[in-house]
Amino acid sequence: MTAYQKLLDQARNTYHVAEIQGIEGVAHWLKTFGAVSFDYEKYTEALFDEFVNPELVVAAYTICDPALLASRARAIEHEMKEWPPEEDEYSGLPRDEWDTIQDELSGMQRLIVLLERTSQNNTDIGNFRVAGFGQWLRETLWAATGVLPLDSGAITKESYLFTQAYELHKR
């Protein structure tokens, strides 16, 4: 057993999650948290950054359960939360959909998860990106899949296993 596999076993015990394989498995697991499909193609400019390979994104899901998100969020995320959103100085102007989504992300009202396939096939997960206050989800999804996301998020002292995974991968 490799050091990384031992770390994953420890993480799965710590995060109380079983191994999940494939994009379908991840999608099913996300739905247990109330996730629904999200039309990411409308918002690629806002969601795709250096941590996302646009050619490999195959699905996106959103979780809109403020009570769940607040109960799982880290203390630092609660400190950074902005809800209710500040009044826009241009409040008389129409807001587009993304403005509302962005407010929900920064207000711990919503998470968005982008799933990427591997470059070898369409069924295995190659990377994922969590937008919003979801360090708990990022780390739990890592533990379940063994896929270390390009975006480490807001690593805190509670993230010691996640931190060790990045050290093993020299990131």
How does this structure look, described?
The chain has a four-stranded antiparallel beta sheet with strand order 1-2-3-4, covered by helices on one side. The mean pLDDT is 91. The chain has one domain. The chain starts with a helix and ends with a helix. Helices cover 41% and strands 13% of the residues. Helix 1 packs antiparallel against helix 8. It is α+β, with helices and mostly antiparallel strands and 171 residues long. The protein is globular.
Structural class: alpha+beta
Overall body shape: globular
What can be said about the biggest beta sheet?
Answer: 4 strands, antiparallel
The rounded Rg comes to 16 Å
Number of helices: 8
Query: What's the helical proportion of residues?
Result: 40-55%
What is the distance, rounded to the nearest whole angstrom, between the alpha carbons of the first and last residues?
Answer: 22 Å
Name the beta content range.
5-15%
Strand order, largest beta sheet: 1-2-3-4
The number of domains is 1
Low-pLDDT parts are: none
